[in-house]
Amino acid sequence: MDFRSAGSSRAAMATRRQAIAELAAGLGAGLVAGLGAIGALTILPGGGAAPEPYQLGEWTGDSFAPMHAIRDGLGRGPLPAAERRVDVAIIGGGLAGLAVASLLEDRDLVVLERESEPGGVAKSKRWRNVDYALGSAYIVDINEPFDGFYERLGLAPQPVSPPVDQLLTGSAGEGDPRDGKWRDAYAGLKALLRRLRESPDFPAIPISEASAPALALDRLSLLDFLRGEHIGGELFGLLDAYCLSALGAPAADISAYAGVNFLSDINARIYAFPGGNAAIARAMAARISRAGEGRIVTGAAVYAIEPAEDGYARVGWFDAHDPGTPRCLEARRAVVAAPYFFAGRILRGADPAVTATMTSLRQGSYLVANCCFEGPPPTLRYDSWALGARSFSDAVSAAAVLPAAAQPKDHSVLTVYAPFRDPDAGRARLLAGDRGALAAPIVEELRRFLPEAFSGARLVEARLTRWGHHHLIAAPGIVATMRALPKRFGNVVLAHSDGQGMPAVESAIVEALSAAEIIRRG
Fold first, then answer.
1. 142: how many CB neighbours lie within 10 A of its CB?
2. Half-sphere exposure of 278 (CA within 13 A, CB side)
3. Is 216 buried (19+), middle (13-18) or exposed (0-12) by CB count in 10 A?
4. pLDDT for 218-250, tens place per residue?
5. Whole-number mean pLDDT of the chain?
6. Whose CA, among 225, 404, 413, 486, lies 20 to 30 Å from 359?
C-alpha cells in the first residue's frame, strides 16, 4: 500500500510527518487515557516513500490499574463483614474460571471477573463483518475429554483448511523454505514429533499422569533436546518464533516437555472459530447466565482470599471503578482461576514457601495488532510466520476460517502477534501506552514480509491489544514445579492453565474438570 495524496509537496509532507512524530513521541499513559474523548489517533509509519496514514484504535486488553493497586498494597488490612454467602465463588472469569462455573451450573455460585467482559485472553472484536481474536486463536485436541466438553456447550469445532500456515522470509520471490532448502530438515522434525506423539511417553496433559521418560524432558530446554536429536539448526529461528508466540520465550528458555507437547501440533489438524477462542468463552458465559441471573460479576477485583478448613472461605474484592470501598463475600468452596503469580499474592495464610514459588513464576508480555484493510484481500494461509522479523512472530488471516462464500471481497483483517523477548521491558512499554511507537515497526515489517496484503488494499486502522502478563513462560523445570505445588488450601482450590505448566485451552479445561470434581466430592 503506497500513500496517494495528490497535491502534497515534499516540504508539506515532511512537516506533517514531523508533527505527527512529535505527537506520537509525546504520548504517555495519561495522554493515551485522555485520547479516549477525541477518538483514534492518525499516524504515519516511518520509512519508505510516504506511506498512507492509518488510524490507531483505543487500547483493549489488560486493565492493569486495579491489579497494580493490589500489588502495591491495596487491601492488606482485615476483610470487612461479608455481604453475601454462596456455595461456590470463582475468582477469575477467563477460560478456566468459566469452565468451572459451567461444569457446576447446578450450584449457587458467583464468578468475580476484574475486566468488563469475561473471557480472559479469549476475547474478540469485530471490524465490519469480520470477527477477529484479541488473543487466544485456535484449539488442537478435540478428543476425550475435550470433545464432550465442547459438545456440551453446543460447539462444533471446524478444522482449518490445509495448508494451514506459511513461512515468510521477507525476500521477494523466495518461497517457503520448508518446501525447498529446508525440506529434509523439516521432514526430520515432523518425523521425530510423530514418533514421540505415538509413544506412551509423550509429554501430554494432564501432567499428573506423565511417565518418568516424559518428565525427563522437563529437565532439558527444547533447544538442547532438539540438538541432541540432530534436528537441523536452520529450523531454530522458526522454532523460536513458534515458542515465543505460544509459550512466551524462545526455544532455549522453554521446557522440552512443554515444547514437544506444543510442537506436535505441526502434525495435527487445528480448529478455529471466527474470532478465535472467544467463541468458547461466550458459549460458557451464556450457559452460566442461563442457569441463574447475576452469576458473572464483572469489574470485580479480588484482593484477598482467606481459606478455611471448616466453614466458609472469605473473599475480599472491590469494584474496579471504586477501589476505596472494600467488599467481602463468603463461600463454602472457592476456586482461584487466576494466574499463579497473582493467586500467590492474594491467598492468605498459605505456606510462605508455596506462595513464594507461585509469585516467582515468570509471565510473558504480549502485543496483538489487528490490522484492518480496505480493498481486495490477498490469498493467504491461516497463519503466516515471519522468519527473522524483529517486531512480530506471525499474522493470522481472521477471515480464513470462514467458508469461501462468506469471506469478504473488499476488506480483511490480519491479527498480528507480537510477543516481547524481554517480558519486563515489554510490560514497561505496554504500560507507557505509546500506541504509535508500538504499531509503527509492526506495520513496517508487515510491508516487508506480507507485501501482498498492501497491494491493492489500504491499511485503514490498527487496533492494539496489550497483555502485560499474557501467559506463563514454560521454562525448563516448569512441569516438576507445577506437579509439586498444592492445588488445595483448605476449602480453596486452584484451577488455571498455569497448573499444567503450558498456556493452552486444553490446560484450562483439564484444570477446570479437576477442580469441579474436587468440589463435587466435597
1. 19
2. 16
3. middle
4. 999 999 999 999 999 999 999 999 999 999 999
5. 90
6. 225
Cell matching residue 444: 513496517
- What does the alpha-carbon distance between residue 387 and residue 167 come to, in Å, rounded to a whole number? 7
Q: Average pLDDT for residues 393-399, to the nearest whole number?
A: 97
Residue 175, number of CB atoms within 10 A of its CB? 13
Work out the number of other CB atoms within 10 angstroms of the CB of residue 315.
Answer: 29
Distance CA 348, CA 173 (A): 59
CA distance 319 to 324: 9
By DSSP bridging, strand 85-91 and strand 322-336 are parallel
Cα 42 to Cα 389: distance, rounded to the nearest angstrom: 24
**309 and 491 Cβ atoms separated by less than 8 Å:** yes
DSSP character string of 351-420: -HHHHHHHHH--B--EEEEEEEEESPPP---SEEEETT-SS-SEEEEGGGGS-GGGS-SSEEEEEEEEE-
Cα angle 366-166-1, degrees, rounded to a multiple of 5:
75
pLDDT tens profile 81-98:
999 999 999 999 999 999
Q: Provide the 3-class DSSP secondary structure of residue 334.
A: strand
Q: Which amino acid is it at 181?
A: K
Nearest to 440 by CA among 42, 70, 30, 72: 42
The answer to whether 438 and 402 have CB atoms below 8 angstroms apart is no
What's the pLDDT tens digit per position in 323-346?
889 999 999 999 999 999 999 999
Residue 388 and residue 237 in contact, taking contact as beta carbons nearer than 8 Å: yes
pLDDT in tens, 293-319: 999 999 999 999 999 988 999 999 999
Contact in structure between 91 and 112 (CB atoms under 8 Å): yes
Beta-carbon contacts of residue 94 (< 8 Å; ≥ 6 apart): 113, 118, 119, 120, 121, 122, 281, 337, 338, 496, 508
The answer to whether residues 338 and 93 touch, using CB atoms and an 8 Å cutoff, is no
Report the pLDDT value the prediction gives residue 172, as an integer from 0 to 100: 85
Q: What is the pLDDT of residue 52?
A: 75
Q: Cell numbers 515458542 label which residue?
A: 243
pLDDT tens digits, one per residue of 495-507: 999 999 999 999 9
Pairwise CA distance, residues 115 & 320, whole Å: 8
Q: How far apart are CA 499 and CA 507, in angstroms?
A: 8
**Distance (Å, rounded) from C-alpha 220 to C-alpha 477?**
8
Inter-CA distances, 44 with 51, 53, 115, 446, 461, Å: 7, 5, 32, 15, 11
Average pLDDT for residues 121-135, to the nearest whole number? Answer: 97
**Which conformational region is residue 355 in: left (phi greater than 0), alpha (psi within -120 to 50 degrees), or beta?**
alpha
Across the strands, what pairs with 306? 314
